[in-house]
Amino acid sequence: MNKKIPYLAVNLIAPGVGQLLAKKWILGSLMLCGSILCILWFTWEAVYPIYRNMMLILNGYDMDYNIFNVRNLILAPVFLILIWIISYVELMISKDDDAGSSKPDLK
Fold it and tell me: What pTM value is reported for the model?
């Protein structure tokens, strides 16, 4: 367990960073890219309706109150939290010996 503590601690930065530190490159990259995509998705769902309403108002139309997609505003952070939980669980159940090294120990 003591060898996993640095990986779990650095995983607080972003999901997948602990896997990257543990030399699980593909899994860490996928988790990091997935979390970045969730953040971009949430930002798009929050900013685009505001931008769209500003354009409607500037063009002389009434504001559209039904433009926010609340389901997507909730799903993006939920997926981010799920990725983070999966990242921690994967680090916890991984082998305790060098947590990701595929090199055999030749002693």
Answer: 0.77
